[in-house]
Design brief:
mainly alpha; Rhomboid-like fold; 58% helix; Rhomboid-like_sf; Rhomboid_protease_S54; hydrolase; Peptidase_S54_rhomboid_dom
Length: 238
């Protein structure tokens, strides 16, 4: 995960406000570029009477559509479809990316895979499934629990706010919603939760070890309480 972490290295502690702003700027441009690509694909798809969606949709049990798992999130069935996905995709994608773009790209591949495979294995036959909603649910799940795995105060607060504000999304990750691929949503959500664990910040061995009786911690030693105080200070709470 070199280059993808939002920290200076394993056990290096939280980044400063300047680096957070720099990472957020990169995340913004990554998501802006991603949205441009999605909308350009939609224009081409619309001009071709949605032939791309028919040709590159994921169909359960058809081996030939397995590679389309990575293409399907860029495709939609209508302008209403892409418009309903665009806002949540940008917001959750940005929040998922601002801790490291390389990590975000790995997460995106994982979520696209789990979402597409859930459709491929369990969807009813003959249904062509496309759309970015699987990614949205994956990013949502990742953002909600990432702070818990990373033990990062700011991300934990963001996850709490997102969970409280968008809990209604979970209602379309269960069976029964007409015209919606709940399997793609559920698969993406599971991928996001797995990604929060796989792409968590890993501290070096002994980074959180208690100080010895022989004296105070050596300069530069990791101190979880100092990390917490620094984050509270960055938020203006201390």
């Amino acid at each position: 995960m070199s280059g993808g972490s939002g920290r200076g290295g394993a056990g290096a502690g939280p980044v400063g406000p300047e680096q957070m702003i720099a990472e957020a700027r990169k995340a913004f441009f990554v998501m802006f570029g991603f949205m441009v690509v999605v909308w350009l694909v939609q224009l081409a798809n619309y001009a071709g009477h949605y032939a791309l969606s028919r040709h590159y949709g994921v169909i359960a049990g058809e081996v030939g559509t397995l590679p389309d798992i990575l293409a399907a999130p860029f495709l939609h069935w209508s302008w209403a479809h892409i418009e309903s996905n665009s806002g949540p995709l940008f917001v959750f994608g940005f929040l998922a990316a601002y801790r490291g773009v390389v990590r975000f790209l790995g997460l995106s591949l994982l979520v696209a895979g789990t979402s597409g495979l859930a459709v491929w294995f369990f969807e009813r036959g003959g249904v062509e499934t496309v759309g970015a909603s699987g990614l949205i649910f994956g990013y949502f799940g990742y953002v909600v629990v990432r702070g818990l795995f990373d033990r990062h105060l700011i991300d934990s607060l963001i996850g709490l706010v997102m969970a409280a504000s968008f809990a209604y999304l979970l209602t379309v990750a269960v069976p029964g919603t007409p015209g919606v691929s709940w399997l793609a949503h559920l698969g993406g959500l599971i991928g996001g939760l797995i990604g929060a664990w796989l792409f968590r910040d890993r501290r070096s061995p002994g980074a959180g070890a208690a100080p010895s009786d022989s004296g105070p911690p050596a300069p530069g030693a990791h101190n979880p309480r100092a990390d917490l105080h620094k984050e509270l200070g960055d938020l203006g709470l201390l």
